[in-house]
Structures are given as structure tokens and as C-alpha cells.
Amino acid sequence: MFLSLRIFNLKRHLKDKRVAIIGAADSVFDEKNGDYIDSFDVVIRINKSALVWNKENADYLGSKFTYLFHSFYENNYSGGGPINFKEFKKLGIQNLVHPNSDSKGLKAHLNFYKRHLKLKKTYILSPRLYKKITKELGCFQPTVGFSAIYSALNTDCKELYLTGFTFFKSPYLPGYRDDLRDTISNKRHIEKQGIHDPDVEFEVFKNLVQNSGNKRIILDSRLRKLIT
């Protein structure tokens, strides 16, 4: 891990770039925006997105992968999903990023290397940025998707497009976590975990967007309705 782990300099990677972040909510299937997504310089996807993507849904999801933000938990319970470097490379994923850089995140990273025993370069967010994110949420740990959004909103990217995020107010897209597609079941699952609070994340997100000086923040129709 000490030979492979690096800090991901998001500000450098996203500066003056058009960036799209694709979440796992079913709202990604509201419109066929695949070509639009692929037109962005950088496309960030979350957790199991590489596993559920296929050519049949590319009209909606696009086919471009630049960075994958991942929890580094590969079990079904956490929702991260298996990490397969060979498949990730085929999809064009350049960097695998674990946003959580506190002690829990480093432990998850260490366990990842124990499982795989491979010298593979992986990334975490800077401790300073991660502390900034967690300070906004109080005692709750950010979800991987929220970490990606918050991080991008704190860069000088030229444009930011967000789709597939409803802060758990709608089901996951089909095939992503079918055991939790029912919103009530998913809410109970989140409460049982006790580490995330999507409602707090949503309020922080709204404030970030409404107070942002970046006028080129584009939200899909479902997310736009949620914050108005």
C-alpha cells in the first residue's frame, strides 16, 4: 500500500475541464443523454457503475469512464462492488479513487491490498479536503457520490454536469443494487448502517449549488426539480 497509494490532486485534474459525474439513481434513465455525457472532458463514475454498464444502456449512461470513485469495500452489503483492474482498463478508467482518507479509509485501503496482493497505483483525496467534507456533515461519513460532487464543486472546473443523483429519494437504477431498489428498504438499510445521512448531504449540496460562483453547474431534470 505504501508503495502504491497516492493523493489524488483533483484541482489539477479538473482545472478548466468540462466534468460530468454520473450517479446510480434511476433518474439517469429519464433522458437519453449518453452522447452528451461522452462529450465531457472528464467523466467520473461511482462504485458499481463499471459493473452494471453495458452497450444496451449507453444511450442513457454514455460510455466514457475517466475516474472511478470507489468505497474500496468489495462486499455486497457496502455497495462498493468488486474491483477488477483488467475490466476497468478495458472501460478506460484512468484512476481508481477512494475519497475517505481518515483512519477508516486507510484501513479499508490496507484490507484491499491484503486481498489483492498487487502493486497497483490507487488514490485517496487529500486529508485536508476530506476533513472539509466531513466538517460539513457533522458526525456523518460522506457517501462516495457526495464526496465526488463536493470535491468537484471545490475545483476550478469549467463546467459540471450531474445526473443520477437524487440523494436516495428515488430507487437505484436497475441492476445496481436490486436488493435495495425499494426506497423504504434502502432507507432502513442506511439507518441500520448509521454512518451516512442523505438528508444532511442534500442540504449541504443545495447550499453549495445555490452559493456557487460557478454558473455552469448543470443538473439533470430530476435533480433540478428537487432543489427548487
Keywords for this entry:
single chain, 228 residues, sialyltransferase cstii, chain A, eight-stranded parallel sheet, 11 helices, globular
Written account of the structure:
Helices cover 40% and strands 14% of the residues. By secondary structure, the protein is α/β, with parallel strands linked by helices. Helix 8 packs parallel to helix 10 (198-210). The chain is globular and about 45 Å long. The relative contact order is 0.19.
Instruction: Note the overall shape.
Output: globular
CATH architecture: Alpha-Beta Complex
CATH class: Alpha Beta
Roughly what percent helix?
A: 25-40%
Mean pLDDT: 92
Largest sheet: 8 strands, parallel
What structural class is derived from the secondary structure elements?
alpha/beta
Break the fold down into its secondary structure elements and pairings:
Layout lengths: L4 E3 L2 H5 L3 E5 L11 H5 L3 E5 L2 H4 L5 H4 L5 E3 L15 H7 L3 E4 L4 H14 L5 E3 L2 H11 L6 H10 L5 E5 L19 H11 L4 H13 L6 E3 L1 H7 L1
Helix pairs in contact: 8-10
Keywords: Glycoprotein, Glycosyltransferase, Membrane, Transferase, Transmembrane, Transmembrane helix
GO cellular component, one term: membrane
Pfam family, one: Glyco_transf_29
Summarize the structure.
It is built from eleven helices and eight strands. It is α/β, with parallel strands linked by helices and 228 residues long. An eight-stranded parallel β-sheet has the order 1-6-5-4-3-2-7-8.
